[in-house]
Amino acid sequence: MDYKHIEIYTDGGCSGNPGPGGWAFVLKADGVFEKESSGGSIDTTNNKMELTAVIQALKTCMAYHPEEIIINTDSQYVRNGITSWITNWKRNGWRTASKDPVKNKEYWIELDALNAKLPVTYKWVKGHAGIEGNERCDSLVRSEMDKILKN
Fold first, then answer.
1. 12, 21, 22, 133: which is the annotated catalytic residue?
2. Which residue in the list 7, 11, 81, 144 is annotated as catalytic?
3. Please, are residues 71 and 62 in contact by the beta-carbon 8 Å criterion?
4. Which residue in 7, 21, 40, 50 is the catalytic one?
5. Is 112 among the residues known to form the active site?
6. pTM tops 0.90
7. What is the mean pLDDT of each run of 10 residues along the chain (151 residues)?
8. Domains with residue ranges and CATH for the chain
């Protein structure tokens, strides 16, 4: 099925950094369709989980052929990385301005490839500010971490 407008909230988190982590997204399409998804990892970082949430959401969008996707993230790392920093990282052979290797390079490469195929706009939202989609993602992330911690 095709949708014109997709709005997504994403979140990722970790208990310890590194440690057990979770990611989640909530997707609303054309104001009617809603899908949410989440997952976790035993040993990860906050940034990896934030990136995974966006990557998984965009992979889901590939099937919908949207005209517009808005990603709402509470991660400045994700928003700034994909909208600004990545251009220089690629130009500099995946090195930062201080010549260090870019952390999570494989995640950035995957996100960049998806971003090139889809009409995505990234917006930063304040975390833990009562924004419904962000709060739902946060709850899903905590649930994923709890599953790992209980095992």
1. 12
2. 11
3. no
4. 50
5. no
6. yes
7. 94 94 97 94 97 98 95 97 97 95 98 97 90 94 95 75
8. 5-77+112-150 (3.30.420.10)
